[in-house]
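During the second year of the project, the team shifted from modelling isolated chains to modelling whole assemblies. The rationale, set out in the original proposal, was that interfaces cannot be judged from single-chain predictions alone. As a representative example for this report, we include one of the complexes processed in the last quarter. Its constituent sequences, exactly as entered into the pipeline, are reproduced here:
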Amino acid sequence: MKDIEKEGFGRRDFLKSAVAGGAVAAAATAAVVTTQPAQAQPAGTAASGYAYLNLDEAAFVEAMVDHMVPADQYSPKGTDMGLAIFIDRALAGGWGKGERLYMQGPWKPGVPSQGYQLPLTPAELYRAGIAATNAHCAKTYGKTFDRLDAKQKQEVLIGLSSAKITFSDGLPVRVFWSTVYQTVIEGMFADPIYGGNRDKAGWKMIGFPGVIATHAQDIIKYRDKKFPADYTSISDMS
Amino acid sequence: MAKVMKEVDAVIIGLGWTGGILAKELAEAGMSVVALERGTMRDPAKDYALPNIRDELRYVQRHDLMMNTARDTLTIRNNPSQEALPMRKLGSFLPGDVVGGSAVHWSGHTWRWTDNEFKIRSNYEARYGKKFIPGDMTIQDWGITYAELEPYYDKFEYTAAVSGKAGNIRGKIQAGGNPFEAPRARDYPLPPLTPILSSEVFSEAARNAGYHPFPRPSANASRAYVNPDGSKFGACQYCGYCQRFGCEANAKGSPHMTVIPIAMSKPNFELRANAWVTRIIKDASGKRVTGVAYTNVLNGEEFIQPASMVLLTAYAINNVHLMLLSGIGKPYDPVSQTGVIGKNYCYQTGAGATLFFEGRNFNPFINAGGSNATMDDFNINPDFDRGQLGFVGGYSIGAGFNTALPIGYRPVPRGTPQWGTEWKAATSKWYQTAMNIGASGGVMANRYNYYDLDPTYRNAFGLPLMRMTFDYKDNEHKMGRHAAAQINALAKTMNPTHLNEASARTDPWTVVPYQSTHNTGGTIMGSNPGNSALNKYLQSWDCHNLFVVGANVFPHNASYNPTGPVGALAYWTADAIKNRYVKNPGMLV
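Output from the structure prediction step:
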């Protein structure tokens, strides 16, 4: 129990106490930020820090992306690939604010074939879904998602993806999960200019070469041969 | 108070392929023409340029070139007993929203639809008997023939730089082409694209099974090309970013680099972008239109553009919507089966398998929009007997890659977990070692698949949204089951390491995910005003100085992509206007 508590005392708690602690703690906060691993922050990518997610939400997203995308021989872990940053920036930007969503009522649940019918922007959906998932975790395990062990996290994500978990506040779990899953995938494989896919780790995992001017000669040259990808992103060519 | 503009000979609503072709043809004929496009102007040299055009998140996921549903959308339901709800974001289909329209982001697949479609009811009744066609299947002959349209297909193919291999030149079958195609006067302007491995593997298996695969004809220039109008094309670079993207190589046949700049070079043509047409205006008699009302979406200012004739050439869905909003023609009623505007909305169906070959390298990121081999053995093949199968229409089967980018395309064997190391291992292993075989099937018109105006929801201009009522019927389910069985049988002959089998869809049509931007019907062409909105020249039966051009004129939908006949019909209509209508305005039929 003690060990779990120790593990559970994460950056969120530190930052919360830092806010209460005034100037001394503020200096310490800066130190925390600057001690982020240097290799995870190559030149040209977005600065660290969150534009939309609050502390609880950041802890949830970081824990989720690190569970879904663990460090292994295929890629660094999710936070080191920039997935939490990608998600935060997506939610803070035009997409997260629903800039292309038809947002006029009346609002009705409809049937699945009618698609998205919630009166929520993606950012609002994410916020409500994290709160509902954490409420489920608190009820089931006595703690929030980010403090669960790996087996419990797996249980929760399976419950979300299969809709075996239902949210007591009425938020449709399938819609939350499909949005979450979409953003994780986008963070892994979108151009690094959006803050995810850091160091093109998602592309390297599958051998996708990225921004290529021409493949006109490559069809014949690499027919049934592994393409020697020189992984290139938009900022590499800008 | 709307500002009234100076009257012109013709006002064009929407500037994609159809509007662009008509703009060029009529401007060259000396008519004064104004084109109103609700989307923005984009400069290909800046907006479709490297490196930023190679951005899957922006163009595929976030729909940068597509219709903005915050401003205007449709409501959707599967049948008349459901309450329609708004399509709140894009999914199943993706209309374009820039100068050039959907033809900026299309893949270029260009087919000739023939008398197989144009005489569909006559053909099936003659071969299988009248009872073969179900009572609620409202297919009808189109009132036009392939022979009439052939020269216009030719013109469109040479304008758009279609690469392909003829299968039938003046009745003589050509090796390597589609042996089932209708006779054409000459070959395509450009040779086929270089085939990619997945399409070759498929072609070999198909030939071994006795089928007849051929390279898919596509408006992706296989080499540098100058079209008959002098428009210059670069050679396709097989960049892998075709569908959903503008082409930085000017290799994809698109109106913004062919017909539109030619129209814009004429002093008697004017393009107004950001001009949203809200209504076509009729005169007191109701038998003529006098122009259109539109709003400048940059500042909300309203205008009237008077014109001697109106050419409605927006996206197929929006053409029907504007007819309904303008009160032109009688709206279709599925209960009484009267009226014509909104009738015979159709879509497409399909089935697909994924084949995994351990150790192979398909390099799915190397492709043109048309990197695909196709076979029509279950489509336009005259020996394909539907008698025992009991369905109308057909499907083509094809394989290759088109825009297999990693957010959207990450094949794994069924049963693979959705996350974690096991998922990453499978994603890593199979991205380059899998290929697909897919079927694209037609959808026959049905009494209960139609458009009308929604009673509840409104767009940004306060106008009723269009309501789409659509579902697949028994005919499509039968065809889907047949297609899935043929695909699976063929796939098994190829001995893949794993096979995700094709299955027929039997669940209701859903607005998610993406399926096909081939929405057809709603203002169909036909032989008389009782069964159609337009005559064979795409002229409104109600208002003779209104022409409506697009896939909305198709009385049913076939397996093929619609742009070939859409482009050909635009040239056909342009000729009818230039050579006949302007000399003697009135009904052409």
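The two ends of chain B are 38 Å apart (CA to CA). Chain B touches chain A through 67 residues (CB under 8 Å).
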